[in-house]
Design a protein that fits this description.
The chain is an alpha+beta fold. The protein folds into two domains: about 200 residues, Immunoglobulin-like, CATH 2.60.40; about 180 residues, Neutral Protease, domain 2. Helix content is about 30%, strand content about 25%. A hairpin with a 5-residue loop joins strand 17 and strand 18. It is globular and about 70 Å long. Bound molecules: zinc ion. The site of zinc ion has 6 residues, from helix 4 and helix 5. Its cofactor is Zn(2+).
Length: about 500
C-alpha cells in the first residue's frame, strides 16, 4: 500500500473503511496449494473463479500463442503470487497494471504486482505467452501429445502447465471460456458447448464454454482434423463427438463405442442423478498413447483403446467420472479412490446390467486373482502414495471396497448412497473420509472398520461376509471363472497410464 496525503474531504469517509493491513503484512502467496503428493501443484493466496483463454495454434510448427485472462479473489494480503506455467511469458498485468514476473522452479510463474493486493478483493490477471508445448519438458517429462495434424492436452494429474497458466490443483476449480484460432480446415476441440465459430483470412476461431466449476487437469484442448458428430439428448443437452480423420482401422470401433455416450449417460443418471454439466461427448485424436481421461463434459480416448473392437465399458468409466471425479473432485490427490474406485465399480454395474457378470462375480474373480502374498494387497487405495496413485489396486481393490459396502448395507441403502453423494458434494471437493462418514449417516451403521480393512490395511482382507459361502464352495472346486465382461474391463486398465512416476521421480 502507498501511504499518501488524504484530502480533508475524503478523511471522514476513509475512516469508515476497514483499515488495510500495513505494508509489512503483505506476504507472498505459497508456491504450492499444500498437497503433500505434489508440493508444487497449485498455489496459495488466491482463488480463481474464471479462465478466459484466447489462443492461436499453428499445427505445422506447434506454435501456441495465447492471452490468458484470469479472474480471481485474494485470500490473503499478497505482495506477490504464483501461477503454474511452463511456456515463455512476454507480459503480465494485474488489474491492468504491468507486473514483474519471473520463472522459478520447474513450473512456477512468480508475479509481483506494482503494489500489494488486499485480502478479499477481486483481481484480474492477464498473461501473454507463446511457445511450443512439445518442446517443454518438466523433469524430463512432456504431457503434450504432438500429432501429425496438431496437438492435444489431456493428462493427469497435470496437463495445464503445457498450455495455459493456472492454479493447477483440483481444489481451485473455475469456469472456462476457451477460444482457439486454427487454420481453416482444422478444428479445435475443448470442453463444454461450442458457442460459435467463424472464419477470417484463412483462420477459423472456435469458442468453447464450460460453465460449471472445472479442475485445471480436466480442461482439454485438441487441435487437428476431425470428423464431428452433433446431436441433442431428449432432455436437450448438446452432444458433440470428434474423431480424428486419421484413425485408420480403429475408426469404426471408436465410433461404435463413443456414439453410445448418450445411452450410457442416461443409464448413469438412473444411478447417480442428473448429469451435472452443460454438454456431453467424447473425442478420439490420433495420439499414440493408450489411455483415456475424464476431461470434463468431453472425455479423451486414445485410438488404441478400440484396437480390439468397440468398448462401451471404457465409455462407462469416463462418463461415471463426470459425477465421481469431475463434479465431486478430490480434495487432495491422496483421495484418488473417490474417483477411481467408483469409475471402476460403475463398469462392474454396467456388466451386471448387460448380463455379462454381476459385480459380485467380478469381485470374486478379482479377489481370487490376487493371492495373499500378491503386492496388489500392499497398495492402500485410501492413501496409495504418489507412486501408486494410479496403481491397478486403486481401481480393483477400490471397487472391492464398494462391493464389501454393498454386502454390508444391502442394495437399497447402497444405491441410495451412490446417488446421494454426487448431490451432496456437487461441484466441490471431498476426502475419502467424507465418503465413509456419509455412508455411515445414510446407512445408520458404523462402517469405519469396514473401510479401514478395504482401503487402508496393507494386506488381503478376509473374503467379504456375503461371499464366504461361495468362496468355500469354489475352493473345493476351482477358482471362479472370468465373467464375460472381464476382458473388456481389463482392456481399460491402461486407462490412466501417465507420466507421474517419471515426472515426479519418487
Ligand atoms: Zn478413471
Amino acid at each position: 500500500m502507498h501511504r499518501r496525503l488524504i484530502a480533508p474531504g475524503a478523511l471522514a469517509a476513509s475512516l469508515l473503511l476497514a483499515i488495510p493491513a500495513s505494508a509489512a503484512d503483505f506476504s507472498p502467496g505459497a508456491p504450492g496449494i499444500g498437497d503433500p503428493y505434489y508440493p508444487a501443484s497449485g498455489n496459495g493466496g488466491y482463488d480463481v473463479s474464471h479462465y478466459d483463454l484466447r489462443l492461436k495454434y499453428q499445427p505445422k510448427t506447434d506454435l501456441l500463442e495465447g492471452t490468458a485472462t484470469i479472474n480471481a479473489r485474494t485470500t490473503q494480503d499478497l505482495s506477490r503470487f504464483n501461477l503454474d506455467f511452463g511456456l515463455k511469458v512476454s507480459e503480465v498485468r494485474v488489474n491492468g497494471k504491468k507486473a514483474k514476473f519471473a520463472k522459478t522452479g520447474d513450473q512456477e510463474l512468480e508475479i509481483t504486482p506494482p503494489s500489494g493486493l488486499v485480502k478479499g478483493t477481486a483481481i484480474t490477471v492477464v498473461v501473454r505467452y507463446a511457445g511450443k508445448p512439445s518442446e517443454l519438458k518438466i523433469n524430463g517429462y512432456n504431457a503434450w501429445h504432438r500429432t501429425p495434424d496438431g496437438g492435444v492436452a489431456a493428462q493427469e494429474p497435470e496437463a495445464a502447465v503445457w498450455w495455459f497458466p493456472s492454479n493447477d490443483h483440483p481444489l481451485d476449480k473455475a469456469t472456462y471460456d476457451v477460444s482457439v484460432s486454427v487454420p481453416d480446415g482444422t478444428q479445435a476441440i475443448s470442453n463444454g458447448v461450442l458457442q460459435s465459430q467463424s472464419s477470417k483470412l484463412g483462420w477459423t476461431r472456435y469458442n468453447w464454454r464450460s460453465n460449471k466449476p472445472q479442475a485445471s487437469y480436466l480442461t482439454t484442448l485438441a487441435v487437428g482434423k476431425f470428423d464431428i458428430t452433433t446431436d441433442k439428448t431428449e432432455s436437450g443437452l448438446p452432444v458433440l463427438n470428434a474423431y480424428s480423420k486419421d484413425l485408420g482401422d480403429n475408426a469404426g470401433s471408436a465410433r461404435a463405442s463413443i456414439e453410445r455416450t448418450t445411452e450410457v449417460a442416461e443409464w448413469l443418471e438412473t444411478l447417480y442423478g442428473k448429469y451435472p454439466f452443460n454438454a456431453l461427448g467424447g473425442y478420439v485424436p490420433n495420439v499414440k498413447s493408450s489411455y483415456a481421461l475424464e476431461t470434463q463434459t468431453r472425455p479423451f480416448y486414445s485410438p488404441a483403446a478400440f484396437a480390439n473392437g468397440s468398448n462401451a465399458s471404457i465409455v462407462v468409466h469416463e462418463l461415471a467420472h463426470q459425477w465421481y471425479g469431475d463434479s465431486v473432485s478430490v480434495d487432495g490427490w491422496k483421495d484418488i479412490w473417490v474417483n477411481e474406485g467408483f469409475a471402476r465399480y460403475s463398469q462392474w454395474l454396467w456388466s451386471e446390467k448387460e448380463g455379462e457378470g454381476s459385480a459380485q462375480e467380478l469381485a470374486d474373480y478379482v479377489y481370487a486373482q490376487h493371492p495373499a502374498d500378491d503386492a496388489f494387497w500392499t497398495v492402500k487405495p485410501g492413501d496409495p502414495g504418489p507412486d501408486n496413485q494410479f496403481d491397478i489396486a486403486v481401481y480393483d481393490r477400490g471397487a472391492l471396497a464398494l462391493q464389501a459396502l454393498r454386502n454390508e448395507v444391502g442394495d437399497d441403502t447402497f444405491f441410495a448412497i451412490l446417488k446421494g453423494w454426487p448431490q451432496k458434494h456437487a461441484y466441490g471437493n471431498a476426502k475419502v473420509n467424507d465418503f465413509v462418514k456419509y455412508a455411515e449417516k445414510v446407512s445408520g451403521k458404523p462402517l469405519a472398520e469396514l473401510f479401514d480393512t478395504w482401503l487402508y490395511q496393507p494386506s488381503r482382507p478376509d473374503a467379504p461376509a456375503a461371499k464366504q459361502a461361495r468362496v468355500a464352495r469354489s475352493a473345493a472346486a476351482s477358482a471362479p471363472a472370468a465373467p464375460k465382461s472381464w476382458k473388456e474391463i481389463a482392456a481399460t486398465n491402461g486407462v490412466h497410464e501417465h507420466g507421474g512416476k517419471d515426472r515426479h521421480g519418487h
